[in-house]
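Request: Show me your protein:
***
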Amino acid sequence: MRQATRRRIPRSRTVLAVVTAAVLGVAGCDAVGGDSAGPSGTGAERSWPSPSPTPVWDTGPDSVAAVGDSITRGFDACAVLTDCPEVSWATGGSEKVDSLAVRLLGRAGAAERSWNHAVSGSRMADLPGQMERAARHRPELVAVLTGANDACRETTSAMTSVADFRAGFEEAMRTLRAALPKTQVYVASVPDLKRLWSQGRTSALGRQVWKLGICPSMLGDADALDAAATLRRETVRKRVEDYNEVLAEVCAGDRRCRHDGGAVYEYRFGTGELSHWDWFHPSVDGQAELARIAYRTVTAKRP
């Protein structure tokens, strides 16, 4: 700073300068024009913390819609070859399951503000239509579990291609976003069908039920362990892994979508968590486990 000159300054001008400096010091940024930066060396340079951004993901959505296939309909969990949506992992009201909707909304809230549009036997190609129906309720969260039937075909050559699977899921997400840009989506991975085969084949009853045509690409000739049967099952397993990669990738491209990170695929379902009607679909205990995985994913605190 330059040294002051020796010329005497009138007292009145000195007082005025002191008062002006005090006013500027108190006024801070406002004295130099709102949010404008102040001159160097003044109090106007001090920085103020920015407000925290509103989180994109709400861990407490107020309504839930479910889409998917027989797993979400509770198929074979209560009786043979019958849907049992009461025990659905996503929206069921059963106390034995404590579905995702019940855990998020409470039992009364789930009864009023959750909807199940899953259809037994449906595949990925059916998901856009289910999304459209689910969107009519304007849910804050849509839960998705589908893909097993795309792999469970008469033969491995009849399985849905990975490209078609991707196209179907992308169309389903576009359908939802066109109606509800801010609705959140939880996506469960497709279960490990080979794991279900390895567990269910221990039951003589299960092997007999499988002959009715349940997932023939994986469960057909359940006792066969020759090279052809082994290759067939590995082909199905690899296709499921490819489907799960598609689900994770498409979901990652949407800010309001959460994938379970492969938790359902990796879960080691035991015989107690499989339907004792077909030894393939989840039992009531299996549905409860799916609900737990979903709730953990939806409510996780992430940066």
